[in-house]
Amino acid sequence: WLNPEQTPYFYWLIPESPLFGVLGLAAEPGQPIRTLLDQFLDRLGLEPLAYQGARVATYRPGLPFRVVRDGWTILPIGDAGGQVKVTTVGGTVTGLWGAVAAVEALVGSRDGLARSLQMELLVHYLIRRILHRFTLGDYERLLFGLSDGAVRTLSRASRDAMTRGALRLLLAQPDLLRQAIRALLR
Fold first, then answer.
1. Strand 21-26, strand 67-69: pairing
2. Which of 65, 119, 133, 162 has the highest CB neighbour count under 10 A?
3. What's the rounded mean pLDDT across residues 25-32?
4. What is the pTM (predicted TM-score) of this model?
């Protein structure tokens, strides 16, 4: 569920059975997360069994792939390396990508895989910066206005490969660029 008045991210629900599921809220630090969750549960008529919470170390530009301290080379990966996509707040694939890049660095290969991971995370970061500016109306125009070509592109694109997918999506529906610019100028 998208509710930009409450969070620039989203609410999500993963059913575990017909009667139980896991409900979550991705939000910025400082938001009244428990209050928002309780209000959302009330609106859906759901009862919580328990609450859990965590901070996620999402990507931000400038995070180094390699750090040298006291003569030791450190290659932070996964959450420790901020290798979590800010679009979906998921980091399993990008964390594994970071681990492979670290192995390549340890065996003396080039940092090409690390650079491509950083580019991928940067694309997600830029998409998130745009989505943070979206109103509910913007989301409705985005989702209900997708062309058949854009839907086909999204159905074939991996959300972990947006560097390639974003260009294909813009070619399938050029109006998305106008929507993004309008949101950024708001």
1. unpaired
2. 162
3. 92
4. 0.87
